[in-house]
Automatic annotation (TrEMBL), chain A:
InterPro entries in the record: AAA+_ATPase, ABC_transporter-like_ATP-bd, ABC_transporter-like_CS, P-loop_NTPase
PANTHER family given in the database record: ABC TRANSPORTER, LINEARMYCIN RESISTANCE ATP-BINDING PROTEIN LNRL
PROSITE patterns, A to Z: ABC_TRANSPORTER_1, ABC_TRANSPORTER_2
MF annotations from Gene Ontology: ATP binding
Protein known as: ATP-binding cassette domain-containing protein
Domain spans labelled ABC transporter: 6-241
Sorted UniProt keywords: ATP-binding, Nucleotide-binding
Organism whose genome encodes this protein: Agromyces salentinus
Disordered as annotated region, ranges: 317-337
UniProtKB/TrEMBL annotation, chain B:
Protein name as catalogued: Transport permease protein
Keyword Heme attached: no
Protein localization: Cell membrane; Membrane
Family: Belongs to the ABC-2 integral membrane protein family.
Keyword line: Antibiotic resistance, Cell membrane, Membrane, Transmembrane, Transmembrane helix, Transport
UniProt source species: Agromyces salentinus
Length: 337, 260
């Protein structure tokens, strides 16, 4: 039997804010096996980071149980800390520190010997492409370099389980792609179990084998990205016609809907669109309805989120405040407590 | 279900403290000039306030320096350590402090290692101030200077720890840190007799000075740098420094233990 890396039963976090109880994480059950790469996907404020902060011993849960790497997060926080790597949302290296120095300090924090730390630091500098900047102070690094350093710091003690909180937030597309490559390489080379949170659909899609969708403090779906897409969303097919009348008749025949913005186009959501499309064209041709154009699109995780919540994650991300509402809440709540 | 092997090794308070101390000291070793930079303020007082003091008192240059330089040393210790919490404040706002909270480090070590680091710049800066004053006629007793710096170091650890505790309490409110910092620092400085003698001040000021640990420290430094180990003020200064250190470390460790 494979080891369970993370288990949780009824893990809950309630913050008190202005006399009102806010349920940041509703009773949550989790099981992540050794070697899995899991993404926690959801909008800002969904409770992803709060869950992560509980699992990494940064925040005590209000209720429930959890074990991480076999250690109880309440009674053996020290055991958890010795077994996990954690890369938080912010940049975790000191601004006035030099890159290599910070890795050496991190090695000492994890009780590695001096020589071992030096070897490990140089290994990470090489594998995360930090060689050019190893002697520079952290404040001189680019966003992508800082983020790679954060990951190097999280890996100094070769943890079997790595937590990544919003790993690519704030990076340009090139640096993001580069970071993903590093994460995938790391996983291939070491088999590290990775648990990450993200509000980027493409990040979850590209990186994770398993996606847990979180919204309003609860996990509302948990499966592989492919399975989620095929079971919840289905392909999106559109058919265009010469007239609005043709479109209306066709919509009734094949069970689609006329597009609100374009009366001559019919949209259908179908499990397997690529097979259905030629069949529909044939059927409609039999009753003299000529299809003049057609599109077929695979579902995205955004379609999944839309199907689950009625809201689009992509639009929420565009409207979201850049400030981390979730983190700020967590802070003010602990002050009040 | 079995436990995954730990990949970090168990450490203890001493090793953790050493690791934190080494991390905090590295930027200083890499860029020693940063120590000199924070000397600007005390040197300005020495160079611009000193001559005024000499003129106003009507005393000779060497005699006035003998009175004034020990006060400047206390100023170095006070201002240097009071703002050190700002570094932690900044690291709390990035993810740096959080990273150390997830690491298997003792919380007390996170505070004590940082506070101990304060000793290094303090001793270097104090020595530079004395060296600058010597050509102008300041006579220094070397064993007295060593003892004086040691007392200041003990005070600095405590005051630095209090600055960290303030940073932990302020979290993301920088303005609050600097407001408390400014509100406390100047009254503490003036009511210590560091710059001007308080004997000529009104009675309430003398009462305030009597409860200000810094005034005991200033008197002790004046005696020590003159080589007068037997002066009763030395005892008072040692007690004031030790008390600041004890209170600072206790308050600081308590704040760090509660840190999230």
């Amino acid at each position: 039997m494979t080891n369970q890396m993370i288990t949780a039963q009824g893990l809950t976090k309630t913050f008190r804010s202005k006399g009102q109880a806010v349920e940041a994480v509703r009773p949550l059950d989790l099981a992540v096996a050794e070697g899995e790469l899991v993404a926690f996907l959801g909008p800002n404020g969904a409770g992803k980071s709060t869950t992560l902060r509980m699992l990494t011993t940064l925040l005590p849960p209000s209720a429930g149980e959890a074990t991480v790497a076999g250690c109880d997060i309440r009674s053996d926080a020290a055991g958890v800390r010795r077994r996990i790597g954690y890369v938080g949302q912010g940049n975790s290296a000191g601004h006035t520190q030099r890159v290599r120095d910070e890795l050496l300090a991190q090695g000492a924090f994890y009780g590695l010997g001096r020589r071992e730390t030096r070897v490990r630091a140089d290994e990470l500098i090489e594998s995360l492409e930090l060689g050019q900047v190893a002697g520079r102070t952290v404040q001189a690094l680019s966003g992508g370099q800082k983020r790679r350093l954060d990951i190097a710091l999280g890996l100094i003690h070769r943890p079997a389980l790595l937590f990544l909180d919003e790993p690519s937030t704030g990076l340009d597309p090139h640096s993001r792609a580069n970071l993903w490559e590093h994460i995938v390489d790391l996983r291939r080379a070491t088999g590290t179990t990775i648990f990450l949170t993200t509000h980027y659909l493409d990040e979850a899609d590209q990186l994770a084998e398993r996606v847990m969708v979180m919204d309003h403090g609860a996990v509302i779906a948990d499966d592989t990205a492919t399975a989620l897409k095929s079971s919840l969303a289905g392909d999106r097919v559109t058919l265009s016609f010469a007239t609005a009348t043709d479109a209306a008749v066709a919509a009734a025949r094949i069970g689609g809907e006329v597009e609100p913005g374009d009366a001559r186009t019919v949209a259908v959501v179908e499990r397997d669109g690529s097979r259905a499309l030629p069949r529909w064209i044939r059927e409609l041709g039999d009753v003299d309805l000529e299809v003049v154009g057609a599109t077929h699109r695979q579902p995205t995780l955004d379609d999944v989120f839309l199907a689950l919540t009625g809201r689009s994650l992509r639009e929420e991300a565009a409207h979201a405040q850049p400030a981390e509402a979730e983190g700020a809440d967590a802070h003010s709540a602990t002050v009040a407590a | 279900m079995s436990t995954i092997d730990a990949t970090a090794r168990p450490t203890g308070f001493v090793r953790d403290t050493a690791a934190v101390f080494v991390r905090e000291s590295r930027p200083l070793v890499r860029d020693p000039f940063s120590v000199v930079f924070s000397l600007v303020q005390p040197l300005v007082f020495l160079g611009l306030f000193g001559p005024l003091l000499i003129g106003a008192s009507g005393g000779d240059v060497a005699g006035t320096l003998q009175w004034f330089v020990p006060g400047i040393l206390v100023m170095v210790a006070l201002f240097g350590t009071a703002s050190t919490g700002a570094n932690l404040l900044f690291e709390m706002q990035t993810g740096s402090h959080e990273r150390t909270l997830v690491a298997p480090l003792s919380r007390s070590a996170l505070l004590v290692g940082r506070a101990l680091k304060e000793v290094v710049p303090l001793v270097i800066q104090g020595t530079i101030v004395v060296l600058v004053a010597v050509p102008f006629g300041f006579r220094v007793d070397v064993p007295g200077l060593v003892a004086g710096l040691a007392v200041l170091a003990v005070f600095g650890i405590g005051f630095g720890a209090l600055s960290y505790a303030l940073a932990l309490a302020c979290r993301n409110r920088d303005w609050m840190f600097w407001m408390v910092h400014q509100t406390l620092l100047f009254p503490l400085m003036i009511l210590s007799g560091m710059l001007l003698p308080l004997e000529d001040g009104p009675e309430w000021m003398q009462v305030a000075a009597a409860i200000n640990p810094l005034s005991y420290l200033v008197d002790a430094e004046r005696a020590l740098l003159g080589g007068d180990f037997a002066d009763p003020s030395v005892f008072g200064g040692v007690i004031a420094a030790a008390a600041t250190c004890a209170i600072g470390v206790i308050v600081g460790v308590r704040s760090m233990r509660r840190a999230r």
